[in-house]
Structures
1.
Amino acid sequence: MEAKEILRQHIARTASLTDEQFEYLFSHFKPLSFKKGQTIISEGDKVETEYFVLSGCLKAFFINDEAKMYILQFAMPTWWTSDFNALYNQTKATINIDCITDAETLCLTNNDREKLCNELHPVEHFFRWRTNRGYLASQKRLLSLMNNDTKKRYEELLALYPELYNLVPKHLIAAYLGVSRETLSRLYNAH
Amino acid sequence: MEAKEILRQHIARTASLTDEQFEYLFSHFKPLSFKKGQTIISEGDKVETEYFVLSGCLKAFFINDEAKMYILQFAMPTWWTSDFNALYNQTKATINIDCITDAETLCLTNNDREKLCNELHPVEHFFRWRTNRGYLASQKRLLSLMNNDTKKRYEELLALYPELYNLVPKHLIAAYLGVSRETLSRLYNAH
DNA sequence: CGCGCGATTGAGTAATTTCAAATCTAGTGG
DNA sequence: CCACTAGATTTGAAATTACTCAATCGCGCG
């Protein structure tokens, strides 16, 4: 399916735009393709844009002082990603985003999003719902991280994204769950 | 300060409403006061409303099978709280909300919020930003939970809400940080 | 074939939990 | 004013869990 059509259907789920409105909206998006392993945002960068994933898989991650990686999000098709904190607050990036596989995206600048939200009420409605979904998902993950043991979180993740299992290396799954790769390995090999 | 004025200033920080628009918006809010210890939402309840805190302190928490409590949010003045997952998805509450101190709130139903967002573009803008703030805070906490040790998270929490220190019992702080009260006690008594 | 990356396994260590008991504190009634 | 009580906090000790570090295994690719 064509990029434009994917975005159209994605937005249509929460907001009704006329053909003309959608064309106008779409004209602000810029297609960007990336190769496996390519970096999209690095810590310290100025962040101007957010990315809507059309195909492939990105990861948004944080590297701490001891060079340990924590994955905040696997960005799969129809998900949005960026360093939203840096984007909205106009500060330098504190997280990194790169490509687990080849990927196609549509990107939108912070200024254009705000402009479009201001000009078109249905667009603002869409972005409210998008953010809301992210918020609810984040709250759910927070609760899961505190309440569930690693095994349960592992099953939860695979239930949410079955395709991850043979798409990403296990040590990235561990970095998402917040445990060492050894612990994860022992978990699903014990029975 | 009067309830109406608190809400007005809170909203004015991100959206410009005319006096008339604000009066219309405000007419949908209902003042509700609670006593210390009173329950606002219980697991299993039907959730129809969200709450804007004017004074006092609420807690939103989850109780697991082993009767362990995890605190998702301390709701302080000018914060919003509810079981947002249940509210937006029209499902039964999975978390509880009650009062740590006497508290005054303004409450708004899910239907009214959606109606107001639909009728008034600036109101939708406001709620997009409110949700966005919540999302960014949630992401930050997630990262902190994975990356920082308990001591650092404790300091972070007190930096964010200095008033919590002598407002809420320590075991609630522990339930927010995701550690046992014993561990927290040992932490800040060691030197 | 051999390199390199990812995954697994083992052993010892560090941190946190649980359970139990002791201590402290604020508020209540006599 | 004092004794009493409930809730909150602290402390001790054993058990659990995950971590780190190191070594090994497995497999795809040049």
2.
Amino acid sequence: MVKELPPQAVIVREGEKPTQCCLLVEGFACRSKTTDVGKRQILSVHIPGDIPDLQSLQLHVMDHDLTTLSRCKVAFIAHDALRTVTREQPLIAEALWRETLIDAAVFREWIVNVGRRPAAARMAHFIAEVGKRLEAVGLATAEQFELPMTQIDMADALGLSPVHVNRVIQELRRSGVLELRKYSVSIRDLPRLMEIADFDDLYLHQSAAL
Amino acid sequence: MVKELPPQAVIVREGEKPTQCCLLVEGFACRSKTTDVGKRQILSVHIPGDIPDLQSLQLHVMDHDLTTLSRCKVAFIAHDALRTVTREQPLIAEALWRETLIDAAVFREWIVNVGRRPAAARMAHFIAEVGKRLEAVGLATAEQFELPMTQIDMADALGLSPVHVNRVIQELRRSGVLELRKYSVSIRDLPRLMEIADFDDLYLHQSAAL
DNA sequence: CGGTGGTTTGATCAAAATCAAGTGAGGTGG
DNA sequence: CCACCTCACTTGATTTTGATCAAACCACCG
């Protein structure tokens, strides 16, 4: 079952117990949590081909929200159906398991990003990651892609304030590393970006298995 | 195959391709990454019963280090053996998959912790989490347990400087929330700690499935 | 046109980092 | 047995990074 969703639409909310998973067919989505005091943290950004709530197949209650960033086309797959397949086809189960493990690897890198890198590096790392992932699924080059996030969204992804995000972007622009305007990224100096970002794509586990 | 390891022993290192998983039988271990500029970030802390490198069964190259914190007893399980079991017993595969998904849920919470919570809340959250998890496996109460980490280790887990960790601990001590000395934690005011921490154990997914 | 949401700018403030010394408890070797 | 070393913890002073506050600015839109 395929559905069109507008930007900022909640797909699943923390506390819910979904009976289906959501395959992102078109558009961008993100997972997030909000603290006590109303501060939001984005946990991951998702692109077409991702199943951002695949974990709900085994973890019955959502511990975070899943929201669209842009207009999205999503396909819903019933847990029952998925479970039938995975029980009969262990290799498919393993492939899906692997997907969730890559997800976890990205979370780990985000912990490092937010915990130990200064603001500019955080920003650079985030951009580099999204570019790499889009490139891997053939949706863009690593140097040029759409990114339908406001500076406020990026702030929530990077654990920074929106004002500071704005300043970091300007700094990266001024130093000729990248352009970043209205939902679109152009990387001018990829090697430099990677260096600022301390980026190593190992954690994306994109190389063919084994 | 069971092995005794001293504190600070590397179990697996980033870049390696292990052929076995490690079940922690006794002691504490942690996963970590180190940036460019030599800053370490601890990604998770592991207690007896955990299989901290279970992901290596499907993700062939380690994207982080796994190290002991205290003296540990670890059992190694060959990937081959594990794979045989999981292919024949889908329910076991699912249980292991579920474990890795809880792992991921903890990573998500750590992103929030490090990205959006002030230092005292970070500390409190970390302590609350470890207590809860130890309690769940019957190794301690949530109020009183051993925690073989130096303040430097905690700094690396929380994305803070060691000096600041020290000050935060003193503040929590002074306000009667907890004692924290020489590898041992005593929580004096658990409700208050939970409140400071903005702690909700939902993300640990400890309640019986479904 | 006026509203609204996102971006930009400047000024000020606060949290946490860094720097620099000291303290103190084990552990080791002379 | 004691001097000494090391490592963790502590303290104070200072600096830095990034947050907050407040106000424009600017497009796009109904």
